[in-house]
Amino acid sequence: MRILLTGGSSDLGHVLSKELKNRGDTPLRIDVRAPMSDSGVYINGSILDRPLLRQSMEGVDCAVHIAAWHGFHEFTKQKDVYDFWELNVTGTSYVLQTAVETGVKKIVHISSESVLDWSGIYGHTKVLGEEMVRAYAQRHGLEIIILRPRAFIPHWNKATYGSFVEWAQWFWKGAVHIDDMNQAVIQAIDFLAEKSIPAPLTLTVDGAYEYTANDLSNWDADGAGTTFKKYYSEYYDLAIKHGLDPALKPTTLDITETRQQLGYEPQYSLRNLLVELELFGADGPPMPTF
Fold first, then answer.
1. Are the C-beta atoms of 202 and 137 separated by less than 8 Å?
2. What is the per-residue pLDDT across 213-242, written as a single tens digit (0 to 9) for each?
3. Fewer beta carbons within 10 Å, N or C terminal of the chain?
4. Strand pairing partners for 30?
5. Which pLDDT value is given to residue 240?
6. Largest alpha-carbon pair distance within the chain?
7. 58: three-class secondary structure by DSSP
8. CA nearest to 184, candidates 134, 110, 126
9. CATH fold for the domain made of 2-205
10. In what order do the strands lie in the sheet containing 62-65?
11. pLDDT tens, residue by residue, 166-195
12. pLDDT category, 70, cuts 50, 70, 90?
């Protein structure tokens, strides 16, 4: 298949391109930044360049719409409301309209759990993006899967996380690993290739947890850190050494429908993080090759 990735030089774009290429697909990667690898075909430009976007989408089997400014850009004030609106709202409308004009029926739209924060700048643009997706699906018969992940910026993105420990402090609260996000997108692409859907599917993407629902409901009932020790007692001292709080209760999201529809089964959990922290220390595992 020919798969167009908007934001193809993003973290997710790199991981996806490698897997798509390895399995015999052709990833077409449109982005204003050159990628770190030669997996697939790089298209230098913006989705806001409508002629270029149209040219890029000709003959495509499925588009994965990744390009967006994120909550991190809002938090750090790197981007303002105009930037968010231009890329996240106008850019999404261009992708959808161009898909209609070029006959691309299958789209995986990367949304965000932040739609729940609808009054925030980032969350608001993601709400509007989902609304456009549903309207285009109804109006033009596009078949679209909306994935709503938690933030999935990887530890090797040093512009965001200065160290593996800094990334671990974020992941500790409940998160999804980029490899699991990659799994969900690949499964969504294959789902759309094999089936027809009458209306968009909206599927939540979360990570793996050793903690059970009962653990979370009765968190640390026997004292601070006891739930952590139930599963990871051998890593307790390691967590303390690196400033990670064993008493911190993570939040989890319901991914029942994602499991049922896609066969999604996240693999990376807190245990994986702790194993990597023990093996590699504060610098964490080496950056993957793409």
1. no
2. 999 999 999 999 999 999 999 999 999 999
3. C
4. 6, 43
5. 98
6. 62
7. coil
8. 110
9. Rossmann fold (3.40.50)
10. 41-44, 26-31, 2-6, 62-65, 106-110, 143-149, 201-205
11. 999 999 999 999 999 999 999 999 999 999
12. confident
For tokens 């303002």, name the residue.
80
88-105: burial string, b at 16+ Cβ within 10 Å, e else? bbebbebbbbbbeebebb
Averaged over 85-113, what is the pLDDT? 98
Backbone dihedral angles phi then psi of residue 116, each to the nearest 5 degrees: -70, -25
pLDDT at 17 over 90: yes
- Looking at residue 76, its pLDDT comes to 86
Is 107:65 a contact under the CB 8 Å cutoff? Answer: yes
Please state the rounded mean pLDDT for residues 264-289.
96
Phi (first) and psi of residue 180, to 5 degrees: -70, -35
Specify the long-range contacts of residues 74-80, CB closer than 8 Å, at least 24 apart.
Answer: 74/120, 74/121, 74/122
Structure tokens at 50: 């409508």
Q: What is the rounded CA–CA span in Å between residue 154 and residue 166? A: 11
Per-residue three-class SS string for 33-48: CCCCCCCCEEEECCCC
For residues 80 and 88, the answer to whether their CB atoms sit within 8 Å is no
Q: What is the mean pLDDT of residues 102-115?
A: 97
Rounded Cα distance, 1 and 37, in Å = 20
143-149/41-44 β-pairing: unpaired
